[in-house]
Amino acid sequence: MKWLTAEVETNKIKRFFQGLGTLTRLYLMLSFITFSVVFIVGTLVYLQNKISFEPLSTITGTAATVPTTVFIDMMTTQVPQLEKASTSTFSQKNITKFLFQFMSGINPKNPKSLVALAIPGMERETPSLLYGGDAATSISPVEYNPPAKVFQQDEISSTREESPAPVPSEPAPNKQVNENKGNKSVFIYHSHNRESWIPELTKITNPDLAFDANKNVTLLGKRMKESFDKLGISATHSDKDYPSSVKGFTYPKSYQYSKLTVKEAFATNPKLSYLFDIHRDSQGRDKATVTINKKDYAQIYFVVGEKNPNWEKNMEFAKKIHDKLNEKYPGISRGIFGKNSNGNGEYNQSISPNSSLIEIGGVENTLVESYRTIDILVEIIADLINDAEKV
Fold it and tell me: Where is this region: Disordered (predicted)?
């Protein structure tokens, strides 16, 4: 009987150690897997920081796509002293919409985003908000390739008419002219020089057809140069029409054409420092207009090409302009957006840290509204240039 009891106790001890051994092996295996995952992720992050200058755009843009009210609601769940919003953003509708758009890249309110995923080149880039603006209300710039018929050969081969006289607008605020223009100067150009506006064109109601050989964003560039000249800032403007001057013109290569224009300008004037590529966005009037002191202004978007190795410097330059604009004219600038996924992704901005792509209003704004914005934009940039000259 004692022998049987001893054998039972021995079996229990064996089972205990067998179970302990199994748990030990399981623990060691899970520890090894965890260590391996942490090591691999750490290595990848280290290598990414060492060999890549591009930001993780998916992470950069994620926080910007989340409305500010979401963060407020999250804080109120942990800080009772904060007053909760009357309507929480944590609704099934809002959460479902955000998750669907974030995971699929399809905006339920924009049917074109679904088509763009299937047609290469239709969606040029997916911009992410880098700085400024309210993530809950900031609308990203939109750009789609115009239909091929807009640049048909019979239109391109026709003689380009002289640009019409600028539409009168309120004069720029009186400022003391700086007679010393310094050694640095401004170059203004247009990669998409035929971008126009529906209200300024006859028989055009489709935003995708709002392109014109005469009445287009080059008028904004001309106005910009004239405003700089009045303020004593040396400025040069290129209104080159690429569809009529480039053999075999194709719209997706616009930035390649404009890069040659910039290089030619530098060859003529090596002292160039400030480069501005002026566009108009494809958003509607309600998303690209702000009313200040009972006057309508075309809102401004800044675009930074994140494939430029030194994109942070261009962002800092745009940030200075954005901050001063909104300080003096609240809401005039929607913010700074980054692009790096497809298409160009560099926008000639590697040529100078003081280079910026600026969208002036949208396709439904008027020329007068855009001129108003140009006048105050030049005023702000001139102040920055003069401050830099003093330093």
Answer: 154-181
